[in-house]
Amino acid sequence: PATVQLDASGTGSIAAGDVFDAVNSSDNCGTVNPQSVSPSSFTCANLGENPVTLTVNDGHGNTATCSATVTVADPNGFCSQVVCLDGEIAKLVMDVEGMGLNSSIERAITSRLELAAYKFCLWNSASTAISNLENIITYVQYQRGRYIPIGQANYIIGQIQALIDALNDGIAECCSGAARGPQPANVVEGSEALKLEVAPNPFRSETGIQFYLPDAGPASLDVFNLQGQRVRSLLAETLDAGRHARQWDGTADGGQALSAGVYLVRLRTEAGVLVKKVSLAR
Q1: Which of 8, 88, 208, 269 is most exposed by smallest CB count within 10 Å?
Q2: Tens of pLDDT along 69-81?
């Protein structure tokens, strides 16, 4: 099967010839030629194996299709990045509030932004968030040059489009601390719910990270900076259900000490995703 290596921006593509197997292809009327493949573009949302449809022709007006598998890989680690959608929206809201726009126009934008963040954190639906953000772009485009200066409108649209790109790339997260993702039917609220705790917080030399898994399964525990870059991988394995603990000493994967500041501890499991903010003091 063909393999697509995502580039440093988290995107990759293939051509029909990348999937076409010339050795095992034949035709009674002529030479089999690769014509098209669909889909041909991939992002972080497509990591792993993906089915594609290959179309070929023989140069005499005859075509045929077949299924193939394309494996998408991320050699540059772009997909390990995280964009805190709710945090970025909060920053954009502050930017809009500082533009001196008409109060009704300002509130129309900021309230819709806040609603988009709220719905994303509540429902974990990238498609819903994208639809909400695209509606805001449409509104800003309509008001551009009328009640919103062109430069400011372009800035708002650019920032929102970057959020949409992160959602499409599958690297947007809700970092407010709420659990994300659908929970299995047998997970109940209370002692059996997915949990993540960090203490002491703030910390200087070392902090303890405790978490509870309602079911056995794969789990990963990572630390990110506020730019969305993963700085430390603490865990990536299959665990039994129950309580687990890890320690973090404020260092990166290479062992170098990280600077003081706020970091994000993210627990990802099949039951959902939890994110906690932790402050490192030096």
Answers
A1: 8
A2: 999 988 877 777 7
